[in-house]
Amino acid sequence: MRTRDGDTTPATGRVNRKKLGDQAEGVAARYLQSKGVRILERNVYNRGGEIDLIGQDAETLVFFEVRFRKRHALTDGAESIGWRKQQKLLRAVSFYLHRNGLWDHPCRIDVVAIAPGTTHQYRIRWIRNAIQAEA
């Protein structure tokens, strides 16, 4: 069932979730740019999976996982990234580095957790080097 503006109802929620995810990624991108990160790519899909944002922080290539949680969610966005999701991100990043010949380039995987704020519109938590590959 669709509403007048074309969104699906909460029963299916796919379009609403995609729209919310895109909005959260936009908020994250603006926040990161305000902190000096240059955003290079958004929503990168490859055989390994999806990478929400790719940016450059000084000389380091940074892959960002963006997580949004509603006001009364039981877990923080960062806490919602389980082992399986971490493995998918590591595969996606490895594939990206391999495809672009960047194996020797310094890089890391960060998480940007976004939630509705109380005094500001959003509460944003940037966790650097949040996900690491085991040697």
Automatic annotation (TrEMBL):
Coiled coil start-end: none
Keyword vocabulary terms for this entry: Endonuclease, Hydrolase, Nuclease
GO terms of molecular function: endonuclease activity; nucleic acid binding
Pfam hit, one: UPF0102
InterPro entries noted in UniProt: Restrct_endonuc-II-like, tRNA_endonuc-like_dom_sf, UPF0102_YraN-like
UniProt record similarity statement: Belongs to the UPF0102 family.
Name of this protein: UPF0102 protein SAMN04487962_11564
Organism the protein comes from: Marinobacter segnicrescens
